[in-house]
Amino acid sequence: MKTRRTTGNRRKSGRSSSRQHLLELNVRTASIKRQRRGKLSSLLWKVSVVVIVVALAAVAVRLACQKFFFNNSEYSLRHLETNLHGVMTEEELVALTGFTPGSNLFLLDLDQANRKLAALPEVRSVSIERHLPDTLEVGIQRRLPLFILVASGEGESVGSASSEAFVPGKSLLCDRDGMVMQPNRLSDEFLHLPILTGINLSGDTAGKRLEDDRFKSAVMLAEALSELPGESFQIRSIDVSKPYAIIVTDTSNARFTFGTKDVPGQLERLGKLLAHCRESGRKIETANLMIQRNTPVTFFMTPETRGQKINPVPTPGSKEKH
């Protein structure tokens, strides 16, 4: 009988211990949850305080900027200093950029104005600067045109025409980088630009860039010829319609045929021909500079020279007969 009582007591004691353990576990869990909620509440409170402080500071800064800068008449635009190089008038600049007199300097969007101006084909670079309290300076670096462009099918009709055929708003120009431009106003320098023919202009409009190899050859030749004395050679037109040759017409209507290779050698032959013309008083009508020896040359015949004996012009590589 004693043994049975001992076993029952042990069971009751084990059950009581298990219940006590569960109770302590529940208490610890509840305590941990309360601590976590407290920390979270504290963190949310701190974040809320920081947000409120930042918002109040932002409002204060905004009000201060409105009072001392944006609504301050001292920073109104009164002086617009421009260096536009003939690309546009000051009135057109104001219409495009919104730089109207009286506007607040800090409210003007200079980045947007810069993008609008830089998008114009005639413009190479733009600089816009604020000079407090009331001045805005705008400078434009203009692209320098090199040729008047003429479509391939019109080459024969204008190849020998004067470059004074420039029509504002219609004629296409391009610089040495191939940027196509369509200026709306006439400039004196446009009247003396050489005409470039033989380029396929289908699809090429203002703002696009020419990538044709023949255009690059024309640029290279034009720059090389520009080093000759201006009084002896001035380009009127360049025809690149033929893939193997470039035909240059000067202001005296003389036609010179250049190859696309050995340009320095051809320029040397041209220099000798021009020197011969200065000494003899002859005027060249055509010359094929592609030929290295015995360069084919024809001269304009005048009543004074018609009966004269025409001797061949010595060129590099040829031997002069005595």
Biggest β-sheet: count, sense, barrel?
Answer: 9 strands, mixed
Any guess at the CATH architecture of one domain? 3-Layer(aba) Sandwich
Span between termini: 159 Å
User: How many strands in all?
Assistant: 12
Supply Rg: 42 Å
Q: Give the CATH topology of one domain.
A: Rossmann fold
Question: Helicity, in percent?
Answer: 25-40%
Structural class: alpha/beta
Q: Can you count the helices? A: 6
Instruction: Please provide the ordered H/E string of secondary-structure elements.
Output: HEHHEEEHEEEHEEEHEE
Low-confidence stretches: 155-163, 318-322
Strand content: 15-25%
User: What is the CATH class designation of one domain?
Assistant: Alpha Beta
Oligomer: single chain
Average pLDDT figure: 82
Please state the overall shape, judged from the principal axes of the Cα atoms.
Answer: elongated
Strand order of the largest sheet: 6-5-4-7-8-9-10-11-12
